[in-house]
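Input/output pair, single chain:
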Amino acid sequence: MFLTPSPFPTVRWRLPIALAVVACAMLLAQLSWAESGATTPDQLMPWGTMTMGLLGGLALFLYGMEMMADALKAAAGDRMRTILAKLTTNRVSGALTGAFVTAIIQSSSVTTVLVVGFISAGLMSLSQGVGVIFGANIGTTITAQIVAFKVTKAASLLVAIGFMLNASGKTDKLRQYGAMIMGLGLIFLGMSMMSNAMQPLRAYQPFLDMMISMQNPLLGILVAALFTGLVQSSSATTGIVIVMASQGFITLEAGIALAFGANIGTCVTALLAAIGKPREAVQAAMAHMLFNVMGVLLWVGFIHPLADFITTISPQSPELQGIARIAAETPRQIANAHTVFNIVNALIFLPFSVPFAWLIQKLVPNTPAPVEKSGRPVVKPLYLDDVLLHTPALALDATRREIRGLGMRCGLILNDALPIVLHGNAEALAAYKNRDEEIDSLYEQFINYLGKISQGHLTEAHTREMITLVNAVDALENIGDIIETNLVHIGKQRLHFGMQINQQTERFLREVHQLVMESLEDAVRAITERNSEAIERVLRVNERLDEIITRSSINHLKNVSQHAPGHVEQYSIVRDFLDKMRRIYSFTKAMARLAESEAHSNEAVEQFISEAKQHVESVEQGEPPAK
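Output:
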């Protein structure tokens, strides 16, 4: 198995757009050079070679970034669940968590989406979520720090080592680490190609004049914001800026302005992702944009003092002079300025997260949920966001949390089954039948989302987990169909016979109904929380349910044998109701079995790893391995 970047839309179109922008820039440069009248051989620029080098290097650079990011997500995605679950009300710890998570998954947009999910579920207030968003900007600076290292000579070796691990690794982890190393090597290889291709531009005066114009911070911010908005990756923009700095084309001040612009341009991703989403998503996107824009406005007048401070804390090369010194020192200085800028911004805004959240709520106030023409609220999932598809572990975890909501809807509908089936009129039964439409709508969205997850690269564990979740969603949808079709039909039968269920029978049916209700609740908990106690409770219901139904059947048959009026019809209705309760329970038991098999699979993996470690330790100590 060979790990490659996941084939999601953002990966597919980001690279062509970046290449198209660079190609257009090269074409304009060539036209301007031709118009200047340069015709002699020593004046001619190798535009073809430069264009191929730049485009090829940029392609490798962006592809390497995607490969490394995807491998990081696959290797550490499962741990993100635990980290995100431990988000506290402390704003500082929330910011640190946001920085760490974003550094791993390399996407502040994904972090923002996760925050939206927590806010929507009531697990986090907007002010707490704002703290995480502040920290997310710090996490994005890790890419700039990585590309600022001058290890381009080892790029080919990194690609070779990564390829061998990726192609021949026997475990998913080993292949993921291989993809990570190979992606890093491609980043440096692409940077080296772009750097070599740009060397002739040192003699191209229009280009040098344009670089001098970047000393104007407003122009630099605008150019970087536009480019970042097109490619939707601030890390890519910062990386390209560092490549240009490595050739001595831009000063530290110009590099800082371009980094500021990249911070503003990346807000486009969050704003586009919020279109058509719940109000919480729009508020989070607005918080992201407002924080970045206000941070740039706060610093735009202090670029020179920031540059002086960064110069004092960054490595210097006093033995070099002129462009050579700028090319040696500026890349690391820009990376450090980018990091310091985002850290200081977070520290400045963090104490004001509560009033900042108040401002966001004023700018984007909450609105009532949309309703259909029938007056019923539009049903939309809270957690199933396409941005999470880049990290399958987080996408599957979001699916689990959404299943909890689907299970609650099923539980609420089932809770109303007994009184409506036994006492409801025709209008109540018709309205009750329509409630399954919510389940059907969510089921369709579940299947579409899980289908998208399956298109990415999944480890064996992720594949098993996805199959478990698909079966769990199927079970809940089947329960909804039983309620819509069978239970409503029983209620109509009761109306047709004009029958009243006696109190003794109703008490018995209520006991069975309560057992099935509790079983459904525990089954959902077993799937969503991997709760072993809930699994046992569901399975224990089986014998008790059989005992109650058998005893009731005998009593009703005795009544029928006495030829009491209406007892045959009542026996038929009771038997149908019990049969449907038994079918619903069978689906809850199936969900418990799914959770049980998943738990056993995880335990088997942990036991295998533990035994392998013990084997290695015994071999290292010269002891005979355990049989």
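The longest helix spans residues 567-620. The radius of gyration is 31 Å.
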